[in-house]
Amino acid sequence: MALRDFFGRLRGGSAPQPAPEEPQADAPAPVQDAPLPEPEAPPVETPPPEAEAPAKTGWFARLKAGLSRSTAKLTESVVSLLHKRRLDDEALEELEETLITADLGVAASRRIVEGFRRTRFGKEVTDEEVKAALADEIAAILEPVAQPMEIIPARAPHVVLVVGVNGTGKTTTIAKLGRHYAEQGLKIGFVAGDTFRAAAVEQLQVWAGRTSARFFAPSKPGADAAGLAFDALSAARADGLDLLLVDTAGRLHNKSALMEELRKIIRVIKRVDEAAPHSVLLVLDATTGQNAVQQVKVFKEMVDVTGLAVTKLDGSAKGGVVVALAQEFGLPVHVVGVGEKSEDLRPFAARDFARGLMGLD
Questions:
Q1: Sequence-ordered list of residues with C-beta below 8 angstroms from that of 13, at least 6 positions apart, any chain
Q2: How does pLDDT run across 192-203, given as a tens digit for each residue?
Q3: Among residues 206, 271, 272, 203, which one has the least CA distance to residue 236?
Q4: pTM, to two decimals
Q5: pLDDT of amino acid 248
Q6: Which residues have CB under 8 Å from 4's CB, separation 6+?
Q7: CA–CA separation, 315 and 196 (whole Å)
Q8: Alpha carbon distance 234, 247 (integer Å)
Q9: pLDDT tens for residues 99-131?
Q10: Are 214 and 252 contacting, i.e. CB atoms less than 8 angstroms apart?
């Protein structure tokens, strides 16, 4: 899918409307056990401007290279298991166990094996036949979830609430999405709603400068994220912004406080626009493997997640988890990331991903 198709230009927008009485930006959250900052991995540094030069290789080549660790883990195990071996019950049982070990999940692994049983049971298969057949089965699972994030021009500014555990790449994902949309001529706004993490605020501010995005920062560390989101959306409507990307906290050590904070943000921005947020994007780190499945379950309890972004596939041997997520939840996978450059976050394509995962051209 071409970038122009995915990052289609928004036109028009709602006329500014009077905002209701604004909440106090620094009002304390309505929970007593407010979360405290927890030790986190150092934030990924934004690359210098010269690092953002156009990539010399095509997207599929970069995707395939980024999936190389996952490919090695999956194909080496499967090929060694089935090399010139007849697919009998014992072989298929071992195949299922191998796929589960490669992070494809129980349900997806069982579905793939059943496909092999229907079409290749009792046959001897070559290495290339095994990889091609696996790619086809995986693509069939992924195809229904390979959907772009729908941007509705009539609702401008289109509000995207970006959620996820701290460290998954929320802030850099916002920056990359914003840059792509800005290159299409859209007016973008970034909201630094992870108010407890100064590094996240500073990082997003740097990217806002590079993309000419309107930047909305908290008045002080730990300021009320809901009040900030309210003010940002009100200003975005008045200024005619097309897209507003809202960063959020992701501290799961106090789940009840985080849940209330996210729900409060949603309640407050609905006072400005009843349809907002128009998208809730959950960012997942592929290096966490099956833990990503648990994160989806947790965030679905908190908010109405509308789509997924899977990052850091280049640093992981657990890319098969995307298949597990597709099979278990059926949530749209909008984008995947295989590097730090803005070009390395691209729309998710089922067949490309499946063939890249199996090391095929």
A1: 153, 154, 155, 156, 157, 240, 242
A2: 999 989 999 999
A3: 272
A4: 0.83
A5: 96
A6: 184
A7: 27
A8: 16
A9: 999 999 999 999 999 988 888 777 777 888 889
A10: no
